[in-house]
Write a structure and sequence with these properties.
single chain, 473 residues, alpha+beta, OB fold (Dihydrolipoamide Acetyltransferase, E2P), 2 domains, eight-stranded mixed β-sheet, five-stranded mixed barrel, RNA-binding
Length: 473
RNA sequence: GCGCCUCUAGCUCAACGGCAGAGCAACGGACUCUUAAUCCGCAGGUUCUGGGUUCGAAUCCCAGGGGGCGCACCA
């Protein structure tokens, strides 16, 4: 039998070089030079140009592309080589050289077929324009859309950098339950599931918060978790039902310390990944250089609507203001909820940021500690960047009695608010054993990456976003 | 869940009430320095699905499906 080695016979292959590695090593090689450096390289054939008794190819591996130089008097099975389909995986061995025009190439002395594609590849120049195809067939998107592959490599690098940065500051990575009997730590609708052996309703976590603070009670003074959370809510360019959060908790800290952590960590990531903290997002300048602006929710809202508001103004006046600005007011809204709604309706989307919006009403912050000087408010912040929430943090509520009261307050709302929290008695018990002053932070990893990678849909930073199943796949 | 837009060859796109087409890919051929190579040839279709209007529908209308964006919910 004659021909190159075929996939059926190849179980293992050992490349000795990569496209990017060769490009770096031979950046100085002048046009028309041949070396005696023999390399073995593997990847997908993405372009092929026949030239009679000479052929050229572009091989794409995990690091980039390199040209293959294929003369019929050097390369065995020349006919078979020119019959390859775009998208086939091949392995080649040959000498590093440059063409007369100076293109770095590998002159193929031997080659084999590692995998044949049975489907035609998308158009080599335009790639895939249909985003539905890109999301459903991400494997194909990654091959033919360089920006997409770049974004997901950046995601991996970003998470790795985060881990290292936190570990360098004595934060310890932990894992807490995804299946929770009482979904807590955020105001959101959970996914429900069932455990057969225990005959128990369980919920996919909406946040790891309450478990992480239990660990601080346990003496793990600085912890973090990077993991998936699930919220049973609508999809949008900024929402996917499962997304990734970083949460950190540090004993002895207050919310100012967490704000500093947020800006320092983000600036570090931007510097490492992009080489700068001054980026462009959606064609608009975005300067992440610390320190970031700090302003209170109350003053930002007052500025936005052009008149002073506060949580202690007469509730009827606050209600009237909300109605004026188009907020859908419910009768059970207290002043805190009204103020928050007014802020979200009129102010949040106008903040390009980055800005730390500080001091949220107690009514809407059931896990945050009372503000040290402002009654009815808590020491809580959200960071707004490009008009949307990037993170949420606070000085943690450490008083068990107060926490139980806040939980009961929440539970009382469950009749009309399906996002209200349930009472978590064990969490209260944990607090009864004593929680040192502590501050916590949650950052949406996907949204952070959207900023750094300059993409406007969350589906561009999640490898396999949630989609309706195909009907006739 | 509601509103607007969209769906044509493997891919990227034309045709916009009058014979469904091009480029790339695929297939056959020419070419020993190409760069999205070029040239010649050939093949490729349930125009998302189902109804309707019309002499005639990819095109107009209705219903359904997929997707995008906006609103609402939220991070």
């Amino acid at each position: 039998m004659s021909g190159p080695a075929q996939p059926a016979d190849i179980y293992r292959f050992e490349p000795t070089a990569t496209a990017a590695g060769l490009a770096t090593k031979h950046a100085e090689l002048e046009p028309g030079r041949e070396t005696d450096e023999s390399v073995t390289i593997a990847g997908r054939l993405m372009l092929r140009r026949g030239q009679g008794k000479l052929a050229f190819g572009q091989l794409q591996d995990a690091t980039g592309r390199i040209q293959l130089f294929v003369p019929s008097d050097v390369t065995p099975y020349f006919e078979e080589f020119t019959a390859l389909n775009l998208g086939d995986w091949i392995g080649v061995t040959g000498d590093v050289m440059t063409t007369r025009k100076g293109e770095l190439s590998v002159k193929v002395r031997d080659w084999c077929v590692l995998a044949k594609t049975q489907r035609q590849f998308p158009e080599k120049w335009h790639g895939i324009a249909d985003v539905d195809t890109r999301y459903r067939q991400r494997y194909l998107d990654l091959v033919v859309t360089p920006e997409s592959a770049r974004t997901f490599r950046m995601r991996s690098a970003m998470i790795s950098l985060m881990r290292r940065w936190l570990e360098d500051r004595d934060f310890m990575e932990v894992e807490t339950p995804l299946l929770q009997p009482i979904p807590g730590g955020a105001l959101a609708k959970p996914f429900v599931t069932h455990h057969n052996a225990l005959d128990l309703e369980l919920y996919l976590r909406i946040a790891p918060e309450l478990y992480l603070k239990r660990l601080v009670v346990g003496g793990f003074e600085r912890v973090f978790e990077i993991g998936r959370v699930f919220r049973n809510e609508g999809l949008s360019p900024r929402h996917n039902p499962e997304f990734t959060m970083l949460e950190t908790y540090a004993a002895y800290w207050d919310y100012s310390d967490q704000m500093r952590l947020t800006e320092d960590l983000t600036a570090h990531l931007a510097t490492e990944l992009l080489g700068t903290t001054k980026l462009a997002y959606n064609d608009r300048e975005l300067d992440l250089t610390p320190p970031w602006r700090r302003a209170t929710l109350t003053e930002l809202t007052s500025t936005a609507i052009g008149q002073p508001v506060s949580i202690d103004m007469a509730i009827d006046d606050l209600r009237a203001l909300c109605v004026t600005h188009g907020v859908d007011v419910h009768p059970h809204y207290g002043p805190g909820k009204l103020l928050l709604e007014l802020y979200e309706k009129t102010t949040e989307h106008t903040l390009w940021g980055p800005v730390f919006v500080c001091d949220y009403p107690k009514e809407v912050s059931p896990l945050a500690r009372d503000h040290r000087s402002q009654p009815e408010m808590t020491e809580r912040f959200e960071c707004i960047v490009a008009g949307r929430e990037l993170c949420n943090g606070y000085s943690e509520l450490v008083d068990a009695t107060e926490q139980l009261a806040r939980f009961r307050d929440q539970a009382a709302k469950s009749d009309y608010d399906d996002e209200a929290m349930a009472v978590d008695a064990d969490y209260v018990r944990a607090l009864e054993y004593g929680l040192a002053p502590t501050a916590g932070l949650g950052i949406g990893i996907d949204r952070l990456l959207m900023l750094l990678a300059d993409v406007s849909s969350i589906r561009d930073v999640i490898l396999f976003p949630t989609l309706r199943p195909e009907q006739n796949a």
